[in-house]
What we know:
The structure holds two protein chains of two kinds.
Chain A: H1 2-26, H2 44-51, H3 53-84, H4 90-100, H5 107-120, H6 126-151, H7 155-163, H8 168-197, H9 202-205, H10 213-223, H11 229-252, H12 254-260
Chain B: H1 2-39, H2 56-63, H3 65-96, H4 101-116, H5 119-130, H6 135-142, H7 156-180, H8 184-192, H9 197-208, H10 210-226, H11 228-235, H12 242-251, H13 255-280, H14 283-286
Helix pairs in contact in B: 1-13, 2-3, 3-7, 3-10, 4-7, 5-11, 7-10, 7-11, 8-9, 10-13, 12-13
Amino acid sequence: MRGLLIALTGFSYVVVLLPILIVVVTAFSASEFFAFPPKGFSLRWFEAFFASDSMRGAFSRSLQIATIASILATVLGTMASIAIARRKGTLFNLVQGMFIAPLIFPAIVLGLSLLIFYKSIGGVPDFLGLVIAHSVLGLPFVVRSVTSSLLAVDPALEEAGQSLKASPVDVFIFIIAPLIWPGMLAGGIFAFILSLGELNTALFLTGPGVTTLPIEIFSYLQFQGGQLVIAAASAIQVFMIIAIVLIAERLIGLKRIVRSE
Amino acid sequence: MGSGLSMNRQTAFWALLAPPLLFVGIFFVVPLLNLFWVSLHGASSTELFGSNLSGENYYRILTDSFYHTIILRTLWAGMSIMLLCLVLGYATAYVIAPLPPRTRLIMLLLLVAPLMVSNVIRAYGWIAILGRQGVVNSMLRSTGLIDGPLLLLNSFEAVAFGLMTILLPYMVVSIVNALNSIDRQYIEAAQSLKANPVRSFIYVVWPLSSPGVASGTLLVFLLTLSAYVTITLLGGPRMKLLVSLVFDSVSGFRWPLAAALSFALLTLALVVAGLILALLRPGRVQGRG
């Protein structure tokens, strides 16, 4: 029984990790086409990636969208959390549910509803449309992690600040923010990572000339087949995520990274 | 003085809540209501939707056997992926949960970090492994076991397997959390009453872990419904699930039909979520006090 459980566990790790590993290893291949094990070692596909205008453009656009969307989600999500974290009652549960909903809501429906909404109001630039969609999707991560940080703050600290006539802004800057910043950071990092890899709303909201890196990879896979430049594109994203996880581990600890997902 | 302070707090409360509330209202709630409104109209060749209210899109989905086939296939796919994830995920969680905290965190990180990698990359990994020129085929061919490549992709099984591997970490994390919140005393009590490990699992561990199982299966099913990219890449052009029809309608500019199909998808999500909650009754564990 124990042996079977461990075998199944091993299988789980292999099927989750192997595809990513294969892609990263292939990216360093020297050959023209996919072969495994790769023939030779080279950085030619990384060079090809940065030499391609469409790839480089999609990459930098993805970074810009993820940066703006995660900042927006962090600001809005922190405001919402501070307003409702300690409130009880059906109405506040409903409001909180609304902020959390995009987490489990089928993102494809959100993407389509936003596309039709943008069209209905006379069009929204693709870049802005994507930033908005990714902010909506990132909000739940921020609300969840900031709310749990806020609930750990002793309310007496806030009351002490108020009784000393500190303005709400001062209370936030000098009392609350120093205590909840790890929660804000964790939420923001997750919103950033989510935006970087997001497909379901981006499928609807990217337009000609305005794609994100995952969509660019998807259309390459669909229409241009096995060019290894997409392995390099994928590897770059994987390395970025590893770097972000390592930095986050230093700043906010492993526990928060594992729990926030 | 007192009222001045509470006025101040009231203003601060609304100043904080209004912007995020408006943002989510305008860009999440209103577009959804608008989508429902669009779904209640016929198609139009010049506008987003026709001018007359009609239930024709829903009528079509409910009566056309083509849609029934696709909806059943979607349900079947979701169920298979859910079950596969449950078996593998529970076994994995059962092994990870009792590990010392630091080791457990690292084992969980190894599963959670892949969730951060875009699904398109993870699906690409499976193409590299299972495709015509993929790892499996080239290994089998070099050993001389096969002459032509095996076709391992573009099938229902490929989609179910691929999505299972992509969504598995959600299941593991949910169940590990549930298992770790079980009070050890319950299991010791079962043992001291001479329950064998199987009985103590069936009557103690499994029911107490049901909140984790419920949230894991729910998450896996909901994410399966939206997984257009994975389904398209691993299933090929002919493997269509409900979400593929939403896309097909959009590329044909049939906005009202796409909208109605989205609500069919949402209904499916709600029905299955209700079934999972009714079957596993996670609420009874939270109420154990």
